[in-house]
Amino acid sequence: MRDREYLFSNTSWHDVERLQLQEMQKAIAAMDGNQLLNTSVEDLVLYFESKFQIEIPTLLTEKIVVDQRETQIDVSRDHNHMIYDRSRPFHIAGTEIEVEIPFTGEAEAFKIQPTTYTTSPPRAEVRGSLLVLKIVGTNLEAERVRSDIDRTVNEIQSHLTTLRGNAQGLRTQLPTQARSAIESRRQKLLGDRNLVGGLGFKMKPRPGTNQTFTAPEVRKKLAPSLPAESTLPYKPEPALSNADYEHILGVLQNMVQVMERSPSAFETMDEESIRSHFLVQLNGHYEGQATGETFNYEGKTDILVRSEGKNIFIGECKFWSGPKMLTETIDQVLGYTSWRDTKVAVIVFNRNKDFSRVLGRIVETAKAHTNFKRELSGSTETTFRYCFSHKDDKNRELFLTVLAFDVPQSDSRCR
Q1: How far apart are CA 42 and CA 29, in angstroms?
Q2: Residues 56 and 32: beta-carbon distance below 8 Å
Q3: 124 and 15 in one domain?
Q4: Over the stretch 356-380, which tens digit does the pLDDT of each residue have?
Q5: Considering the domain boundaries, does residue 56 fall inside one?
Q6: Which domain holds residue 390?
Q7: Residue 304 CA to its chain's centroid (Å)
Q8: CB of 26 closer than 8 Å to CB of 182
Q9: Are 37 and 185 spatial neighbours (Cβ–Cβ below 8 Å)?
Q10: pLDDT digits over 168-214, tens only?
Q11: Which has the closest alpha carbon to 314: 245, 383, 373?
Q12: Is there a single domain that holds both residue 26 and residue 154?
């Protein structure tokens, strides 16, 4: 058997693996910054994993084809032939069998020496997506030729099997290293753009605000922006910073303190009327986008902050009527969260007796919800902070705060 090159003998697998990981790091470092920021991390991980993994060839042995032709064979070094002058070529008529084996995968992989190999690797020629074996001789026999073909194919298959195991090891490393490199570069890019507060809001003071309640002494302007596509300048997704989230909750709590100090003014108000008072106070502290409608409500229950068509804060106001009400309200809030990094609140008014029992039921109900993940720090006797997962994506998290308030009793019907 005479072939043009040895397979699996050019470079070691360890060198190839190291090079692939290094090249991936370079590609991530060289990627356009805006494109990297505008593309989700998981999509980038999948892209780089696919780009730098190695697809080991698979031989399509069921599609093997064989050709035969006459050829001239140099037997000057074959001592089975009587030749008087072996110093120069001596050709005689012979037969050449050419075996074409189609394959899928990367042809370059045939040059890689796997971690386990033989000292006498098989020989073949790579022609595009064909692996070509050649057998030549002067007295070829079908049985022997078939035996040579089978032996060589088995040797190639053995090397490919080892390479597949090596490639699988690389495949397990790529996502982890890609994600680490992507996240590291994202942090640097965001730092270079001076994005502080976890992609939150930059609040703009507005003079002349009448401060009715205990709150920061500024009127605030929400200034989020949405991400662009491709390599357009990066803009962060709208997200409410923790500081602004706490301020909004503080305004809500201060409003309840006013209700407690003036019970007669609120004892006959229904849910919608009380909510309107919350909206007035919130709009007294925050300035919206071009529409000027930062805080508004849709239907009968929503208090929300909108940014360029997206809700980034939602507050649901409900009178306590039992655990079922709270579960349904949480479901309602989760139904709105088809965006990222949303912070939400459920505001529970209690006009029943035994407020302590209501507080206990709130905790039990929230933790029993199917989307509950964990309790967060910062809870108080009447404020409960939780991390919930999105209703359609367990990996997407949102902050849910339940604020419970005991409001004046009235003859109006609790809903």
Answers
A1: 17
A2: no
A3: yes
A4: 999 999 999 999 999 998 898 888 8
A5: yes
A6: 220-406
A7: 28
A8: no
A9: no
A10: 999 999 999 999 999 999 888 887 765 444 445 444 433 443 333 22
A11: 245
A12: yes
